[in-house]
Amino acid sequence: MEKSFIIAGFGGQGVMVAGQLLSYTACETTDKYVTYFPSYGAEMRGGTANCYVVISDEPVGAPKVNQADYVVCLNDPSMAKFKDAVVPGGTIFTNSSVVTIEPERSDIHVVKVDAGSIAIELGAPKVLNLVIVGAIIGYTDVLPAENVLQTAFKKLGAKRPELNPINEAAFRRGWEIGRKAKEEQV
Amino acid sequence: MAEKIFMKGCEAVAETAVRAGCRFFAGYPITPQNDVPEYFARRMPEVNGVFIQGESEVASSNMAYGAAAAGVRSMTSSSSCGISLKSEAISWMAGANLPVVIANFQRGGPGIGTIQPAQQDYLQATHASGNGGFRMLVLSPMNLQEAVDMTWQAFELADKYSKPVMLLMDGFTGTMMEPVELPEPLSEEEVAAIRASKTWAARGKHGGPQHKVMCGPGLDTRISQEQMNERDAELYESWKTTEVEYEDYMTGDAEIVLTAYGITGRIAKSAVKLLRAEGIRAGLIRPKKVYPFPDAAYEKLPLEKLRGIVSAEMSIPAQFAEDVERVVHGRTRIVTALSSGGEVLDRAAILDAARSLMK
């Protein structure tokens, strides 16, 4: 089984970290094959940024896909660019705190995650990517949730251990939203 | 088995170089290979190696030349337009028989081009990375494990032939991350022994033979330029039997053969299975070294019986396809699947090109 992800937003939203959390977890805690490919412009902040993650039971052929199983859009420009980059039957996760564009496709699922607002509510706007990662895991079960959380503690907690509780809270809030969306869909 | 580590391509190359005994790196920043100098800057002090950010590409490649002349395993890296600036020193390395590993993380071109991945330096890498008609062994990995293995191999080959060797990467394999298994590092004793084995190297007045000359024959009276060119020509010719390296994947019963190198080779390989699932008997020829070109890989195919060959690369106009055409020489149809200027080739383009040959 191979699952592909495109995670897109603007520089500073934690797009790359979100992709890396999935990738490190796959590499370090499972036997799965994984690739991560970042794509960005010359800007440090504010420019469009996206990454491609493929997690598979077999060696990965194309680390960059034009049509992914799951697309994550953290802002409107990403939505405009990537809403057609999800396979029929696939799913778009949107950061509904700021995304206003509707995908206008009937052949895909949409999971709206109020990630920006939840992060602010938790007291750290920057954890919006943890909310999104939680939603992805809750919805897809592509990786064990506890493994992803442990990876977050290991990679993000190394420098900022005081953020571990808030990262965990963000992840769990997202996970609930993802899980609920999946249950409603079935 | 070694532990698998999730690494970025640039860093995997740099770490492997250190483990292979590289103790000198000079570079100059350019996207998408900045993680190479950054990694060496952090890592070299740990092994008593030297990292220098030169004042330019020209300076840093000449520094790598100098370190190699002192017998140290030496490396430099850049991207496309930066490699053009380094080409003066690369030609001098070839002329002076100095083993240096040069990595090119190709980006879009010509000129400053784009910072995104491309394969637009193929002809430069394989045919003319500087003046004077020299050739280099050019290794091109399709994934990060191959990037690791080929980095190690590049240092071995550079020393074996006492010539510069190129690692032809791209912005994709440089910036992507993937699990790799790294080789065990050479011990300090082994690194020292390699350096000591280079009796020709300039190491100052510590006994041993004097008046060592490391320069092109134009400045050396012991050999004429023509004699050196003839000697090199023989070496390049010998590589065609000793150094050819390619992957032949499922061509046994193939009616269509895909061919590509580097990251595009990886994408093409995954297209083989998809085509077979559609009932199209596809195979793949993937050069691991693009110089010397693996003519034999294509020669042994039943070319007249094939429906055709799909040659895929991230370069418009096609460059790699010219080598394929040279070997195939009209014996079967060749169609291309191309992208350029920083656009990564989509697998669908390869699949469509293959399907077009079935009509």
Walk me through what this model shows.
The complex is a heterodimer of chains A (186) and B (359). Chain A contains six helices and six strands. Chain A is α/β, with parallel strands linked by helices. Chain A has one domain: Pyruvate-ferredoxin Oxidoreductase, domain 3, CATH 3.40.920. In chain A, strands 2-3-1-4-5-6 form a six-stranded mixed β-sheet, with helices on both faces. Chain A is globular and about 40 Å long. Chain B has 359 residues and is of the alpha/beta class. Helix content of chain B is 41%, strand content 19%. Chain B contains 13 helices and 14 strands. In chain B, the strands form three sheets. In chain B, strands 3-2-4-5-7-6-12 form a seven-stranded mixed β-sheet, with helices on both faces. A five-stranded mixed β-sheet of chain B has the order 9-11-10-13-14, sandwiched between helices. A two-stranded antiparallel sheet of chain B has the order 1-8. Chain B is globular, with a radius of gyration of 21 Å. The termini of chain B are far apart. At the A-B interface, helix 1 and strand 2 of A face strand 1, strand 8 and helix 10 of B.
Helix content of chain A: 40-55%
- Beta-strand percentage range of chain A: 25-35%
Q: If you consult CATH, what is the topology of the largest domain in chain B? A: Rossmann fold
User: Care to count the β-strands of chain B?
Assistant: 14
Order of helices and strands of chain B: EHEHEHEHEHEHEHEHHEEHEEHEHEH
Chain oligomer state: heterodimer
| Overall average pLDDT of chain A | 95
- Find the structural class of chain B using helix and strand composition: alpha/beta
Q: What can be said about the biggest beta sheet of chain B?
A: 7 strands, mixed
Radius of gyration of chain A equals 15 Å
Cα-atom radius of gyration of chain B: 21 Å
Number of strands of chain A: 6
Q: Quickly give the CATH architecture of chain A.
A: 3-Layer(aba) Sandwich
The secondary structure category of chain A is alpha/beta
The CATH class name of chain A reads Alpha Beta
Whole-number average pLDDT of chain B? 95
Please tally the helical runs of chain A, counting DSSP H or I stretches of 4 or more residues. 6
In CATH terms, the superfamily of the largest domain in chain B is Thiamin diphosphate (ThDP)-binding fold, Pyr/PP domains
